Amino acid sequence: MKTQNYILILLIAFSCTMCNSSKKDKEENISTEQASKTEKHEHKTLTAEDSLKLVNHQIEIKGDVEFPLQLTIDSLKKMKVVTIENLKITGKGGVIKREVKACKAVLLRDVLDKAKIKQTDHKDRNFYIVERASDDYKATFSWAEIFNNPTGDNAYIIFEENGKPVKNGEMIGLCKNDIATGPRHVYWLKSIEVYKIE
Ligand SMILES: Nc1nc2c(c(=O)[nH]1)N[C@H]1C(S)=C(S)[C@@H](COP(=O)(O)O)O[C@H]1N2
Ligand SMILES: [Mo]
Q1: How far does the centroid of ligand 1 lie from the alpha carbon of residue 168, in Å?
Q2: Whose CA is nearest to atom 20 of ligand 1?
Q3: How far apart are CA 17 and CA 55, in angstroms?
Q4: Where is this region: Disordered (predicted)?
Q5: Are 117 and 127 in contact (CB under 8 A)?
Q6: What angle do CA 16, 19, 25 make, to 5 degrees?
């Protein structure tokens, strides 16, 4: 009887340790998962020197266009410039990441009209447009969004914030009517690329 009790206690104690250890494993898994999620989402802070390396003095409009272009801030200033007031850059769940009182910008549509997308006829409308930054961050638009949808009136290339040059790069791509404006807010803008769906 005594030995039986002893074995029983041992068994219970053993199963308890097993339970705890597997629970602990799970907890550890969750915490590493969370850590890597945060790591992926957050941007590491760059030194002033590294940030300068990403700055472009012009953006290149290329791909399926009749007139490939290199546009500087000065060339944008010669186009139809609009002012965007109280701009909010938002992330997931509407978290405000950045707020700007006033920005000067031109419409992405005007830039694309200048470069003229190579369309064979009026039904040739299946293109996508990529805004690419020098750190290879990218945002994508479709032809229909820009030329046959209110988004066309909301997709901008920003070159001035509160009367000063923009801080991250010289030009920023932005889509003002997106639910969260963070994803299609492309700083260090380097090129606008037009591709046809074959
Ligand atoms: N070039 C470039 N633009 C970018 C990013 C980036 O990593 N590189 N991050 C985007 C993300 S995820 C958000 S939410 C907004 C605002 O980012 P911030 O919080 O770093 O200002 O910028 C966007 N634009
Ligand atoms: Mo983000």
Answers
A1: 10
A2: 43
A3: 57
A4: 25-44
A5: yes
A6: 140
Q: Which CATH superfamily is domain 48-196 in?
A: Oxidoreductase, molybdopterin-binding domain (3.90.420.10)
CA nearest ligand 1 atom 8, residue: 137
Burial class (CB in 10 A: 0-12, 13-18, 19+), 51: middle
Q: First CA to last CA across the chain, in angstroms?
A: 81
Quote the DSSP letter at residue 80. -
| Index of the ligand 1 atom closest to the CA of residue 97 | 19
The whole-number pLDDT of residue 45 equals 82
Largest CA distance in the chain: 97
The model's pTM is 0.81
Domain ranges (residues) in the chain: 1-42, 48-196
CB atoms within 10 A of CB 106: 22
> What does the radius of gyration of the chain's CA atoms come to, in whole angstroms?
26
